[in-house]
Design brief:
The chain contains 19 helices and 23 strands. It is of the alpha+beta class and 720 residues long. It has 4 domains: 71-238, Beta-Lactamase (2-Layer Sandwich); 250-347, Beta-Lactamase, CATH 3.30.450; 448-649, Nucleotide cyclase, GGDEF domain (Alpha-Beta Plaits); 650-710, no CATH class. Strands 1, 2, 3, 4, 5, 6, 7, 8 and 9 form a 9-stranded antiparallel beta sheet that branches. Strands 15, 16, 17, 18, 19, 20, 21, 22 and 23 form a 9-stranded mixed beta sheet that branches. Strand 21 and strand 22 form a beta hairpin. The longest helix is centred in the first third of the chain and has 66 residues, at 16-81. The chain is flat and about 105 Å long.
């Protein structure tokens, strides 16, 4: 009987809150029931009444601010339209560009300002720096641009389009002159509508040609410029940023919709841009149904088909919420509705004073009667909680071994234990984006807490896929993703096995580092092992691809060792562990030189000096890569001297390397004809050897045309 009761008890999951409240209330309920009951009904009335009035006031104030936001744009259009032709004209582009730029500086929330005339001429300034990061990426302008300026001219001898850019530091850059012009302002609604009116007009939301995202345009015909129209664009992303500034609490949610359910803006800018892109892929505007926020979605989905403004309370997964909406008046926002959602808990302040009176009365009973009982109960409750805390500490240390949910009769603790299991799975999945071994190294070194770095000796490797651009243009994105994912998995495993750390993936390239974040005394040797293993993994994968009829991915690699600043870079709310400095740039340049010399692995002399007793290196050339001034001797890593370090170089190749080195010494002494004969002999033996063919062509050129001046045997490069 007892065992059956225990078994039944084990299956029952009692709510923790109810268990504690039942124990306490059993002692104090008789004394405090009348007082608590009276306060409950009074407090409920106060909460509902104050919340209704306050939320209605908030939605109304937000609607008024939005109307003033549009009034400012309309005022700019009115003022600009009345300017004389000497102040703004398509015939005076520089003066006009300065005026339009100044307009955007004074009206930071605008996306762009422009003028057009009846010939199709067009001058525009785009406020690139004020756009969200996703929007700046869509525009495709050079990095660091503050304002993008466009001039379109149409005449007897054809049309052209000219872009120019103003950067954050004040510098400017001229774009290429385009003779194919597809954009014609005369066919846009903002132009034709403004010409037909004698006041400022605005469009319904439509897709901006340059941004490829919707917005509205305020436009007005120029008074002293026949056929001229001034326009001011405001994107929906900027409306979302406006809503973000109107929030009055972390749990508050705001949105702008129209009567048909179209979602025009949302206070969470990134969420809105995501659903906007998804809707655009389906060639439509986003609607309430597309919202990611379940609470805002539930509130906006309520039946609001009634006249005027209102406030309602609805249930959600995070408790009761208050929804208040207000129609926006004015021609720029016809049929628009401002909605504000906030949790009821945010308005419980008025009941605090009433609750204090009840708490003072109950405190004596709780202190002398309930506390001893609750103390015993707390010990019973905290034991499983301690076990859950121990499990949480293991998760913090990235120790996922032997974990399982803890059995308990408390529903909340059981739910917490299940959440621990879910969190373990989530962190394990996240570690695939940020490798947990890197995080653990950073934790051990104490460098994760703040932005900063230190100078230290590191070895850096860069990889790149030959011909990846051509492959990308001809392949489906899904195939390309799967194809390169297998490739990156193979190369990453090869690097990690030899103490390398993946710094980042850069398109089809990998940047890896040795001797950071923790010291590795043999970092040069381990890097050489890692780069040979990386090439070997690439070749094995390509053999598999060839068997399956898939395109191969030929890998080029560069390796260099030197001083770099290593540490946490970025912003306080988003940082990454990386290395910076000339050493990084030089490693990348070495990888790029593979294409010129027809090699797979190029290394610097610092690598050779640190590992020549373990590996076979073939001298390739003396060069000054782009962006450097000091000559550098570069080598090709041919293989290992012993099997434990990687694929061993065969004796014939070792002999070939020695003969190549001798021929190169003759070339460095300026005896080009003798060097040419030596290289040609080597070329006949190995006609596919890239460095040999490069030296043959160069020696022949110098035999016919000797280098001028004091030749130092260094080949300069002005391209990456």
């Amino acid at each position: 009987m007892l065992s059956d009761w225990v078994s039944m008890l084990g299956k029952y999951k009692a709510p923790l809150r109810i268990t504690i409240l039942t124990t306490v209330l059993a002692v104090v309920v008789g004394c405090s029931a009348v007082l608590v009951g009276a306060n409950y009904f009074e407090d409920r009335r106060i909460i509902i009444d104050s919340a209704d009035k306050w939320m209605s006031s908030i939605s109304g104030e937000t609607a008024q601010r939005l109307e003033r936001f549009f009034d400012e744009a309309r005022l700019i259009a009115d003022i600009t339209a009345g300017l004389p032709a000497e102040a703004i004209s398509l015939d005076r582009p520089e003066l006009t560009l300065r005026y339009l730029t100044g307009t955007l500086q004074r009206h930071e929330t605008a996306y762009s300002a422009y003028i057009a005339d009846k010939t199709g001429a067009f001058i525009q300034v785009i406020n690139v720096g004020a756009q969200p990061l996703e929007a700046r990426t869509t525009l495709g302008f050079p990095e660091g641009v503050r304002y993008a300026r466009r001039i379109i001219s149409r005449g007897t001898f054809g049309s052209y389009q000219q872009w120019s850019y103003v950067f954050e530091d004040g510098s400017t850059q001229q774009g290429e002159l385009e003779t194919t012009v597809t954009y014609d302002p005369r066919v846009r609604p903002w132009y034709s509508t403004a010409l037909a009116a004698n006041f400022t007009v605005n469009t319904e939301p439509y897709v901006f040609q340059s941004l490829q995202r919707p917005g509205i345009t305020f436009s007005r015909a120029m008074t002293f410029f026949p056929g001229g129209v001034f326009g001011l664009d405001i994107s929906v992303a900027q409306l979302s940023e406006f809503l973000q500034t109107q929030r009055f609490g972390e749990s508050t949610r705001l949105a702008i919709t129209d009567n048909s359910g179209v979602l025009i803006a949302q206070d969470k800018v990134n969420d809105y841009l995501d659903i906007l892109d998804q809707a655009f892929r389906k060639k439509r505007m986003p609607t309430i149904v597309d919202l990611k926020d379940p609470i805002l979605k539930s509130g906006l989905s309520l039946d609001r088909a009634r006249d005027g403004d209102s406030t309602v309370v609805f249930e959600s997964s995070e408790g009761d919420q208050i929804l208040s909406w207000r129609e926006v008046s004015g021609p720029a926002a016809t049929n628009w509705i401002i909605s504000v959602v906030a949790p009821v808990d945010q308005f419980t302040g008025p009941m605090v004073e009433s609750m204090y009176r009840s708490m003072l009365f109950a405190a004596a009973l709780i202190l002398f009667v309930a506390v001893p009982g609750v103390t015993v109960l707390a010990g019973w409750i905290t034991r499983p909680m301690i076990r859950v805390a121990e499990d949480a500490d293991k998760i913090r240390k990235f120790d996922f071994s032997g974990y399982k949910p803890r059995p308990t009769i408390f529903r909340e603790i059981a739910q917490l234990s299940k959440s621990m299991a879910d969190m373990r799975q989530t962190i394990d999945a996240f570690s695939r984006y940020v490798p947990k071994d890197v995080v653990m190294k950073l934790l051990a070194s104490g460098q994760i807490a703040k932005i900063g770095g230190s100078r230290q000796r590191v070895t850096l490797m860069f990889t790149d896929i030959a011909g990846f651009t051509d492959l990308s243009e001809g392949a489906e994105p899904e195939f390309l993703l799967e194809h390169t994912s297998v490739y990156f998995e193979a190369l990453t495993n090869a690097i990690s096995r030899h103490n390398g750390t993946i710094d980042k993936f850069i398109g089809d390239a990998i940047m890896a580092v040795w001797n950071a974040p923790l010291e590795d005394p043999a970092h040069i040797v381990n890097a050489c092992r890692g780069i040979l293993a990386t090439r070997q993994a690439s070749e094995e994968l390509n053999r598999l691809y060839e068997e399956k009829g898939r395109p191969i991915l030929v890998t080029r690699l560069g390796l260099h060792s030197g001083d770099a600043v290593v540490g946490n870079m970025g912003a306080t709310n988003r940082m990454g562990y990386t290395a910076l400095g000339d050493t990084v740039n030089l490693a990348a340049r070495l990888e790029g030189l593979n294409k010129y010399y027809g090699t797979h692995i190029l290394v610097s002399d610092t690598i050779v000096n640190g590992a020549e007793d373990r590996f076979i290196f073939r001298i390739v050339d003396r060069v000054t890569p782009k962006g450097t001034t000091q000559p550098l001797t570069i080598y090709e890593l041919m293989g290992a001297r012993a099997p434990e370090d990687g694929p061993v170089v065969d004796p014939d190749t070792v002999a070939f390397v020695e003969r190549f080195s001798g021929a190169f010494d003759v070339y460095q002494d300026g005896m080009f004809r003798d060097a040419c004969e030596l290289f040609e002999t080597l070329g006949r033996e190995r006609p596919d050897d890239g460095p040999t063919q490069v030296m043959i062509e160069r020696c022949r050129r110098y035999v016919d045309n000797a280098p001028e001046g004091d030749w130092d045997g260094v080949e300069g490069f002005d391209k990456k």
